Amino acid sequence: MSAFIIFIILIVLVGFYFMGMYNSLIKLRNQVKNAWSQIDVQLKRRHDLIPNLIETVKGYMTHERDTLENITKARAGAMSANTVAEKAKAESALSGALGKFNLVVENYPDLKANQNFLALQEELTSTENKISFARQSYNDQVLFYNNKIEMFPSNIIAGMFNFKQEEFFEIEDDKEREAPKVKFN
């Protein structure tokens, strides 16, 4: 009789252990989703700022139509991307287009003195910083989640309940990995 009770207690304890493991996987998956939504919010903010920036500079940059069109195309591509990998690639292209834009702006001293432009540029810089922090947070959450899915014994529960690994938000363009070059005139 007492062996039966001990057996039942062991079964219950193992059940609670597996339930706790399952709940921790759910918690980590939800943290990944939350971290992704934080990136998405900042990317939307970035996408919303770009038309205002382009509208502000149109009058100054009459000879730079290609640069402005490239930003607009890159923005459209970034807004239509769906998966993490697609968004990472599209956002990389948008960052490149904005980088080229910032180089062109140097040729327009009147534009650089325009208060609307300065305010928009400050907003965009602030947003870029927030995107960077949100990406880091997202990748940290993905790392925790993916580790939990792969490590024993939680990998058993993950396999049983079809938990899938999440993608990291990675830089695809090797040029973005390089440190920026600073030049003083």
* Count of beta strands: 0
Tally of helical runs:
7
Q: Let me know the average pLDDT.
A: 87
Proportion of β residues? under 5%
Stretches where pLDDT falls below 50 for ≥5 residues? 179-185
Order of helices and strands: HHHHHHH
**Radius of gyration, whole Å:** 24 Å
User: How many discrete structural domains?
Assistant: 1
> What distance separates the N and C termini?
89 Å
Characterization of this structure:
This protein is mainly alpha-helical and 185 residues long. It has one domain. Helix content is 79%, strand content 0%. It is built from seven helices and no strands. The longest helix has 56 residues, at 2-57. The chain is rod-shaped, with a radius of gyration of 24 Å. The model is unreliable at 179-185 (pLDDT under 50).
Features:
185 residues; 7 helices
Short characterization:
The chain has 185 residues and is an all-alpha fold. The protein has helices at 2-57, 65-80, 84-105, 109-113, 115-150, 154-160, 174-177. The longest helix is centred in the first third of the chain and has 56 residues, at 2-57.
